[in-house]
Amino acid sequence: MPVPRRSLLLLLLLAAVAFARKEFVAPPVLPAREYPARDQHRAENVTAAADPYETGSKQNIFTVRYGDAGCLPIRLIISNDGDQPVALTDMKVQLVTGGRARLSPLDSDDLYRRLAKPQRNDQPSRFPLPVPRGKVKGGVKGETLREMDAARFAARAVEPHSTQAGFVFFDVEGISSPLSGSHLYLTGIRNAAGGELMYFDIPLDNYLQARPSVQ
User: Fold this and answer.
1) Residue 138 has what pLDDT?
2) Residue 127 near residue 119 (C-beta atoms within 8 A)
């Protein structure tokens, strides 16, 4: 049965709109040991890796250019090759730059403010207002808010023989080379018995050395 012309035009229009709408899709994740910037604890059967998304081509997976707001997205990958889960509820992440600046990841509110007003504001509001989900406020679209939630590293545990991944975002405005000589440190990862694993030290120079080119 032939499709009516009006229905066919409607289907084509909907397909074109869906194709044009850019949505965040997390890239495939590899085991942490496959990334150049990593720290593998063989005795504990856990490997942590970092994959910075600082180039324009890599940031194309996002609906916004976080770099334009002075933010550096780093994908954190944690693989558990052991037979027991590891807990991430107490995990702390810190980026120590080559210039010895110590940076903690931006939380959701901080990241929202950076995207809403990329220019630095060293006088935060005394009474921050909640951001309604799905609303457009301060130039940040609802789809961007949903992307932030979808992209952020949110795993609370890594099950045996599995990998968890997600993004952490750092405010690197004013830092000319945030990756050169930098290290990403992870602390507070615990085994099934509650014991804390040795801290992870991920040298980001390993990523820079393996990166084929900057685009």
Assistant:
1) 52
2) no
